[in-house]
Amino acid sequence: MKRVGYIRVSTLDQNSERQLDGVELDEVFEDKCSGKDTNRPNLKALLNFVRKGDEVHTHDISRMARNLEDLINLVKLLNSKGVSIKFHKENMTFTGEENPIQELMLGVLGAVYQFERSMLLERQREGINKAKQAGKYKGRPQQINREKVLEVLASGISIRKTAAHLGISVSTVQRIKVS
């Protein structure tokens, strides 16, 4: 039996140290991406890694999924493999045994986290609209035209001058040149 941790933060600059701090684990899988769906590399690796009798530990329900359907499907998938899952913040463990109260709590808390994410996205959209109205929002930076970069480089202009000419970073030009 292995004690396996799953940690998720939404962005690269977020710190994951508080999650599962002090929990003794044999293996840890960590994703630094949104929990909006289950398309996460280390979540997939965890699902492939765990075996019957293993325990998956995660800080709270929202770290596993921000979507009720995904949450329920992940818990069912793990349980069907004979793997239990423990959510530390909520102090809930799912083993696959029927427990109507726990199933209700999973559904309610999962719905709360899904609602929270919806509200966050709504506030984000409102903020972007206000910033646009004030002329402060420029949107996502324009995509780099790889062909143009290669064309300028092929004409004999240096990497540094190509970057200055196209208004992009030297490292971006170098990355395009070697790819």
What's the short version?
With 179 residues, the protein is α/β, with parallel strands linked by helices. It is built from seven helices and five strands, in the order E-E-H-E-H-H-E-E-H-H-H-H.
Strand order of the largest sheet: 2-1-3-4-5
**Could you estimate the helical fraction of the residues in percent?**
40-55%
What would you report as the Rg, rounded to the nearest angstrom?
Answer: 22 Å
Span of the ends, CA to CA: 44 Å
Name of the CATH superfamily of the largest domain: Resolvase, N-terminal catalytic domain
Structural class category: alpha/beta
H and E order: EEHEHHEEHHHH
Total of DSSP H or I helical runs spanning 4+ residues: 7
Largest β sheet strand count, sense and barrel closure = 5 strands, mixed
Protein name: DNA-invertase hin
Pfam family, one: HTH_7
GO biological process, one term: DNA integration
Family: Belongs to the site-specific recombinase resolvase family.
Secondary-structure topology with pairs:
Elements: E1 3-9, E2 27-32, H1 41-49, E3 55-58, H2 61-64, H3 68-80, E4 84-87, E5 92-94, H4 100-133, H5 146-154, H6 159-166, H7 170-178
Parallel strand pairs: 1-2, 1-3, 3-4
Antiparallel strand pairs: 4-5
